[in-house]
From TrEMBL, chain A:
Name of the molecule in the record: Electron transfer flavoprotein subunit alpha
GO biological process: fatty acid beta-oxidation using acyl-CoA dehydrogenase
Family per record: Belongs to the ETF alpha-subunit/FixB family.
Cofactor note (record): Binds 1 FAD per dimer.
Biological classification of the source: Bacteria, Pseudomonadati, Pseudomonadota, Alphaproteobacteria, Sphingomonadales
Presence of the UniProt keyword Electron transport in the record: yes
TrEMBL record, chain B:
Function: The electron transfer flavoprotein serves as a specific electron acceptor for other dehydrogenases. It transfers the electrons to the main respiratory chain via ETF-ubiquinone oxidoreductase (ETF dehydrogenase).
Matches recorded under SMART domains: ETF
Keyword check for Transport: yes
Electron transfer flavoprotein alpha/beta-subunit N-terminal domain mapped to chain residues: 23-211
Family to which this protein belongs: Belongs to the ETF beta-subunit/FixA family.
The entry's keywords: Electron transport, Transport
Subunit structure, as described in the record: Heterodimer of an alpha and a beta subunit.
InterPro entries to which the protein is assigned, alphabetical: ET-Flavoprotein_bsu_CS, ETF_a/b_N, ETF_b, ETF_beta_N, Rossmann-like_a/b/a_fold
Biological process, per Gene Ontology: carboxylic acid catabolic process
Cofactor(s) in the UniProt record: AMP
Secretion signal span: none
Protein name (Swiss-Prot/TrEMBL): Electron transfer flavoprotein subunit beta
Organism: Rhizorhapis suberifaciens
């Protein structure tokens, strides 16, 4: 049976949801071990040990891992890979940053953003912005994999009782250091795990009208707020709102696209949503080809009316 | 300081790719090809660093079939000084590309290598990180700002929650995100001038790198099609649908 090491994404205080889908994917390969690397992260280790289906949690508490710098984290993982057969990370910006560095140090090809586990060496993954699905078989002895969060169910956060094992740190490599972060304030549900998303596009005109039209509708529905690249580039919202090939990949139950034409790049990020609703004044907009429910009309009239009637 | 910029020839981002009927891949015959958009941003950043007097020389490099030289000419027309083409008739995986680039890094000793964060064909997002690992250099991935400061570089990165800044000791590897800059168009005189800029032709064997693929593609298929939707006439009908979905 394969032993799989899963990267736990966290902020040194709480475990991030993206980890849970990676645990489910790893469970399809064999025995699941988790790695919690950080500073003052003991509570994360305890949360990790409760996840259903986890056999062991490796915890390493050291200043070198506080900010998840790939230069420091990758050698640590490579050490642990001496007794694991696969390394699995969620396909978040952190996972995407670290996993390829680990893969190259192990001299294996990484399998990015998998959608399914067909067998212990065969996986499916999207290519060409999700316009094609490739089934790939790895000939490497050890596997390094990143997992698309929306493609796997989340493992239960209760019910597990894994053993916690302390791991020794491999030290600061002195190549990089953390300077600071600017985390966007967002009281709403997180985009990648939200049940409902309301997303705005270029047609919103500016930042003020985006706030005025999209936010009340999202709040009424308890939805997360997303945006197309056009809306981000035009400065209506910060770039972490961006849904698409180069932004976030989401698959909520309901995705409401307001004033978004539906470019290939955007569709790549949301076309696995369960129900897609489009509001657009151009009835030929490509978004209507993927929308389950479409309403053609002026968003500046429709959205306030809709918000009022909910 | 030299800057090395790897560029990839890919299907143009405006083209909707078609899966081949036999499931062996995506049909690239007679399809418009261009420079990977993230690589254009990488070339642009290198040129801006040269314009600021930080960079002395920009070397563009591409690995792939002979036609990749068109992509290199584009980089030269934008402002790169010379180019290296490593030809391979078979597709080279990110690990193989990173190994070839590591050899070139060893030879050229660039202070910075700037790559795109991912290629829009295989969507791997691996090459830059792998190159950093193989050369033992620090990595600044998904960069939206690059500021050189003596013997280090501050890279602002686009991360899931917002932005993060890291300081990397030079030499370093940077991968570009979309918002790093707006790439320039090559002017006609510069396109003409690019034709006489030097382009070295190499093969993977010249570097002694084994590029045997580790992954084999068993099948490429169309993503599941969505069933045709309906159009509603007004807001009341839409509210009814939302209620039926249990979200309102």
């Amino acid at each position: 049976m394969m032993k799989t090491l899963v990267w736990v994404e966290h902020d040194n205080a709480s475990l991030k949801d993206a980890t849970l889908a990676a645990v489910t994917a790893a469970g399809k390969l064999g025995e699941v071990h988790l790695l919690v690397a950080g500073k003052g992260c003991a509570s994360v280790g305890e949360q990790a040990a409760k996840i259903a289906g986890v056999a062991k949690v490796h915890v390493v508490d050291d200043a070198a891992y506080e900010h998840g710098l790939a230069e420091n984290v990758a050698p640590l993982i490579v050490d642990l890979m001496g007794h694991h057969d696969a390394f699995v990370a969620p396909a978040t910006t952190t996972g995407k940053n670290i996993a390829p560095r680990v893969a190259a140090l192990l001299d294996v090809m990484q399998i990015s953003d998998i959608l399914s586990v067909e067998s212990e060496d065969t996986f499916t993954r999207p290519i060409y912005a999700g316009n094609a699905i490739a089934t790939v078989k790895s000939s490497d002895a050890k596997k390094v994999i990143t997992v698309r969060g929306t493609a796997f169910d989340k493992a239960a956060t209760e019910g597990g009782s894994a053993a916690i094992e302390q791991v020794s740190a491999t030290g600061d490599k002195g190549l990089s250091s953390f300077v600071g972060a600017e985390i966007a304030k967002n009281e709403r549900p997180e985009l990648t795990s939200a049940r409902i998303i309301v997303s705005g596009g270029r047609a919103l005109k500016d930042s003020e009208t985006f706030q005025q039209y999209i936010i009340p509708l999202a709040d009424k529905l308890g939805a997360a707020v997303g945006a197309s690249r056009a809306a981000v580039d035009a400065g209506y919202v910060p770039n972490d709102y961006q849904v698409g090939q180069t932004g976030k990949i989401v698959a909520p139950e309901v995705y409401i696209a307001v004033g978004i034409s539906g470019a290939i790049q955007h569709l790549a990020g949301m076309k696995d949503s369960k129900t897609i609703i489009a509001i657009n004044k151009d009835e030929d907009a490509p978004i209507f080809q993927v929308a389950d429910i479409g309403l053609v009309g002026d968003l500046f009239k429709i959205v306030p009316e809709l918000t009022g009637k909910l | 300081m030299k800057i090395l910029v790897p560029v990839k020839r890919v299907i143009d981002y405006n083209v909707k790719p078609r899966v081949k009927m036999d499931g062996t891949g995506v049909d690239l015959a007679n399809v418009k090809m261009s420079m990977n958009p993230f690589d254009e941003i990488a070339v642009e950043e290198a040129i801006r660093l040269k314009e600021k007097g930080v960079a002395t020389e920009i070397i563009a490099i591409s690995i792939g079939e002979a036609k990749a030289q068109e992509t290199l000419r584009t980089a030269l027309a934008m402002g790169a000084d010379r180019a290296i083409l490593i030809t391979s008739e078979t597709e080279v995986e990110p690990l193989g590309v990173a190994k070839l680039l590591a050899k070139v890094v060893e030879e050229e000793q660039p202070g910075l290598v700037i790559l795109g964060k991912q290629a829009i064909d295989d969507d791997s997002n691996q090459t830059g990180q792998m190159l950093a690992a193989l050369t033992g250099r620090p990595q600044g991935t998904f960069a939206s700002k690059v500021e050189l400061e003596g013997d280090s570089v501050n890279v602002t990165r686009e991360v899931d929650g917002g932005l993060e800044t890291v300081k990397l000791a030079l030499p370093a590897i940077v991968t570009t995100d979309l918002r790093l800059n707006e790439p320039r168009y090559a002017s006609l005189p510069n396109i003409m001038k690019a034709k006489s800029k030097p382009m070295a032709q190499k093969t993977p064997a010249d570097y002694g790198v084994d590029i045997t693929a580790r992954l084999s593609t068993l099948k490429v298929s169309e993503p599941p099609k969505r069933e045709a939707g309906i159009k509603v006439a007004d807001v009341d009908e839409l509210v009814g649908k939302l209620k039926a979905l249990g979200v309102a």
